Amino acid sequence: MRESQDELAMLIATEGGKPLVDAIVEVERAIEGVGLCVDHIKVHAGERIPLGTNRFTAGRIAMTSKEPIGVVASVSAFNHPLNLIVHQVAPAVAAGCPVIVKPASVTPLSCVRFVELLHAAGLPPAWCQTLIPENSAVSEALVTDPRISFFSFIGSARVGWALKSKLAPGVRCALEHGGAAPVIICDDADLDLTVTALTKGGYYHAGQVCVSVQRVFVPRALSGAFVEKFRSAVAKLIVGDPTNIETQVGPLIRPKEVERVHNWVSDAIEGGAICIQGGNAISDRVYAPTILLNPAPDAVVSKQEIFGPVVCVYDYDDEDAAVAIANSLAVAFQASVFTRSLDSAMRISHNLAASAVMVNDHTAFRDDVMPFAGLRESGLGVGGIPHSIEDMQIDKMIVLRSGQL
Length: 405
Hints:
Elements (H helix, E strand, L loop, with lengths): L4 H12 L3 H24 L4 E2 L10 E9 L2 E5 L7 H13 L3 E4 L6 H12 L7 E3 L5 H9 L3 E7 L2 H8 L7 E5 L4 E5 L5 H13 L9 E7 H16 L19 H16 L3 E4 L12 E4 L6 H4 L6 E7 L2 H8 L4 E2 L1 E5 L3 H10 L4 E4 L15 E2 L2 E2 L4 H7 L1 E9 L4
Parallel strand pairs: 3-4, 3-6, 4-5, 6-7, 8-9, 8-14, 9-12, 11-12, 14-15
Antiparallel strand pairs: 1-2, 2-18, 7-17, 10-11, 13-16
Helix pairs in contact: 1-2, 2-3, 3-13, 7-8
């Protein structure tokens, strides 16, 4: 992978439209992810269970060992076409599980190349196979086959929950869906730091990230200053060709996604939202980085994951009310709070419905060793390299009885 870094980065940029500067980072993370698997299997072991503590267990010792759970079926998404594959495939290999992986139909090449590299490194070809089906029925046949022991899914909630309902009895699974990540800005926040972080977190990969900044709640007294600083920063983003190293925002994955995002934005504006920046398609594949101020609570952009380069800003007068609105959706994933106060950071972090809260950083921050879990309709189980390896193994206990114990 290290020898193929440039090739992999350009492959990510050309097949999925992720700006090259971010594709380079994705490759570095993917390499680190494989390294985390290597490191984890050096220390990931069983344990001794304390027996002999009463007369019923005297003369016995118990220990556990790790065994692979069985065949893993992985279904992946387009937005991180290499790193998501690494998160689903490399832990399976590290856990000792054969794995069949179905990449997103629009970005399969990174997966194909990674599996080729695994085979070149010595993994038997049958141990990791790529499936690129001609239709969803083939995918469903794979996932629901009773020979599958673990199902790993990254994608839409609609598809993920539907497939889970069709799994064979006893099959374990991990589902990662999307969210509508909230940000609470406090009245003592460093606005320059906040704007810099949110500009990255809201428009990275054109907002096509499951924990992308979407709903920003700002005190009414700070709203004018924040919105102007944010507008100025977003207006400077370089939009265009993803293979240009200077580009910061590239295309959406399909033309129909541009149409959908524009329809949502237009509906929000018709419902009373103020368009501060953007609000238009630049081409059939590229949508302008957009800021909406105070969309209605029932607007689609306020209730559903946008998955596009759009950030909504809401004025608030009462912090508790803002947190309540942030928590009001059926999805819950990662969130952020910006404040200089430790008390505020801890209070709001505790009250937000989220599996992870970033303090003074954007909602899309992630390191590959971190647990990564969607709550409510946002997913099931915990991702992250160590947690995935754990999910793909079982603890087998052996109890020894001897008069010498």
